[in-house]
Amino acid sequence: MSDITVKVRRLNMIEAINEALSVMLERDPDVVVFGEDIGFFGGVFRATAGLQKRFGKNRVFDTPINECGIIGAAVGMGAYGLRPVPEIQFADYIYPGLDQLISEAARLRYRSAGEFIAPMTVRSPFGGGIFGGQTHSQSPEALFTHVAGLKTVIPATPYDAKGLLIAAIEDNDPVIFFEPKRIYNGPFSGYYDKPVEPWARHPDSEVPEGYYRIPLGKARIVREGEAMTVLAYGTMIHVAEAVLAEKGIDAEIIDLRTLVPLDIETVEKSVQKTGKCLIVHEATRTGGFGGELSALVQERCFYHLEAPIERVTGFDTPYPHSLEWAYFPGPVRIGEAVDRLLKA
Amino acid sequence: MAKRPASAKPSGGNLPPLRLHVPEPPFRPGDPVDYSFLEIPPAGAFARPDEACTTEETHALCHGLIRVLDEDHSAVGAWDPKLDPETLRRMLRTMALTRAFDDRMYRGQRQGKTSFYMKCTGEEATSVASAFALADDDMVFPSYRQQGILIARGYPLTEMINQIYSNKADKLKGRQLPIMYSSREHSFFTISGNLATQYPQAAGWAMASAIKGDTRIAATWIGEGSSAEGDAHAAFTFATVFNAPVVFNIVNNQWAISSFSGFAGGERATFAAKAIGYGIAGLRVDGNDALAVYAAMRWAANRARGGNGPTLIEHFTYRAEGHSTSDDPGQYRSAHEREEWPLGDPIMRLKRHLIALGEWSSEQHEAMDAEHIDQVKAATKEAEKNGVLGHGLHHPFHTMFEDVYEELPWNLEEQAEQAMRERRTKWPEWKEP
């Protein structure tokens, strides 16, 4: 930020998201924010705190507990000309809205040859690590990356969360915006038995006031390196970063930020440089987005690869409550994969 | 074999065994048809409450049947919209044109000019009379059997046929199944093939209109069969919670492909009665009586525009033809149903009313039918210049990849190149027209 009048504060991810919503409600009278418990109460994670008071009940309001209705109404509002930003309280609750997302929001532009569009951003906390059990911990991003017409965005820092959310709201296509709730209040090293670090100590918690956007489809190189390429997003960026730092590996860590559209150029360039690729996500393994990444890397970087591509993921089980940390792809699972890549 | 809980033998002691009820329609192929079990109140039997009334005041109307045209073809009772003869004639012409269009397109499908067609024969009033009662810029979220609305709003027949043929002039670029029209210009939302999805969307559009302080309302249609979808529940709930200016129409044409209305709960309650539980106004109307349909829609539209919230209208009608060109109703229902349907045919009824008024004649009607045949034939010829399905006159190849997103991402660019390559491999001489 070259403009010296822009104030930069340290925010956590919730505050950054709240600010993005606030900025867009202020800038664009067509932006409306709605969802379960998001109005007077300000959302179960406080992401919409204060917005109803500031912008009024006409633009920030609670809805019935009906995700089909929330997404369906958002499609209709988009057709009217509004720019709806519905919240689905947990990603695990999004399934009743899938028909409206897949058959409607994602297809409107195509089926009407551009007459009607669905410029909505569906915000939803996702991922585990908060003892949410199997219905408050899932990472269903691959269901959405599989749908032509949807964009899928996942921020990993407060700075990105604000800039990406603003870009998503301004985007004229429907965007699924998954917020990794484990890192709402601080980056997570993967060591659940160590004290939580607040965002305040992380450089990417520096968030400028006001409007800025991070374009969708542009990955972020978290750290440049030579030993291997790590492809990850959301919470797993921080876990991978911690493991590799601990092991002293000069890895290049790429935060994909947007799964669709994917920044394939950055991925290719990095893997062609390092010759090794580690893919990390928290979602279940089979049919996960890691499979797509692995296929793309194989198709485009095969002759640069010096080792088989490694995928570190959650297990193919529902997210277990008591054994949450046995499911979670933590430091041990990542460490093993890193060792295999180094030995190859 | 995998272990599973035993499909237990009844062990209820002396209690009577439970029985599953699987609904069965009153008549199957070959059965004689007797509709005397239907309760058909006479025209003019119901009072017309104030448009701003409480929802409770509409409860009787959810179980009754609003009818205006009586046995003598006169318009009677409080619901008579008292339309002038010219409006009545325009309504008649629009319904008749819709039927002529359907007949021609149906034949076109049989002749291989397109893959699919759906007629609305016998149900023309439910869309045409409704469209007449709405403002032209009220937003409609139709299902697949409301072509009458587009015709009422003056959408060119040639454009409809271009869409049906998926030809090079099709405004939807050949992407949609025939009859899944879209016209923003005519406030006609893009039709989905997935059922009832338009219901919560209409509620959302109406909410947006209220958020913006607009004066336009939304109206939406589903069949009685798809009223079973969860989307209907979502829509009713959102509409009642936010008092959205939307009119919900359930076209109860008795049949959802081969499933009779009993599979949507029709054996237990009327479809209009769903309104009662949601606390929204409900009307049940003779869907083959264009004046009653007009009056009901006008009442609901005025109510919505006056800030008094949503209305659910059940149009009690009969699907006179198959569900689409893909099914043979002779396989699942009695062929006598159509002729025995006690509420007659909407076009015939309005025609007789106009004749009784001295504002129309059989000769005029015949002349009109002949004109419509010519009009549709001319539109068909015009559209055929742009090609019929599968004859190569489609939109440019690259359009297949456009409009998935606002901008083409790299993967679609790559796939578009691949598609062109495949084309050239198969037909080396091929050039994009």
Q: How many angstroms separate the termini of chain B?
A: 60 Å
Question: Biggest interface and its residues per chain?
Answer: A-B, 47 and 45 residues
Strand order of the largest sheet of chain A: 9-11-10-13-14
Query: Count of DSSP helices of chain A?
Result: 12
Q: Helical proportion of chain A?
A: 25-40%
Q: How many distinct folded domains of chain B? A: 2
Question: What does this entry look like structurally?
Answer:
Chain A has helices at residues 13-27, 51-55, 67-80, 98-105, 108-111, 141-145, 158-170, 235-247, 264-274, 289-301, 324-327, 331-343; strands spanning 8-10, 31-35, 60-62, 83-87, 121-126, 151-153, 175-180, 206-208, 220-223, 229-232, 252-255, 258-260, 277-284, 310-314. Chain A has 344 residues and is α/β, with parallel strands linked by helices. In chain A, helix 7 links the parallel strand 6 (151-153) and strand 7 (175-180). In chain A, helix 1 runs parallel beside helix 7 (158-170), helix 8 (235-247) packs across helix 12 and helix 9 (264-274) packs across helix 10. The longest helix of chain A has 15 residues, at 13-27. Chain A is globular. Chain A starts with 7 loop residues before the first strand and ends with a helix. The mean pLDDT of chain A is 97. With 433 residues, chain B is α/β, with parallel strands linked by helices. Chain B has helices at 59-63, 85-110, 124-133, 147-152, 157-165, 198-211, 230-241, 274-278, 290-305, 336-340, 346-356, 362-384, 410-426, and strands at residues 139-141, 218-223, 246-252, 255-256, 259-260, 281-286, 311-316. In chain B, strands 1-2-3-7-6 form a five-stranded parallel β-sheet, with helices on both faces. The interface between A and B is large, with 47 and 45 residues.
Brief summary:
Chain A is α/β, with parallel strands linked by helices and 344 residues long.
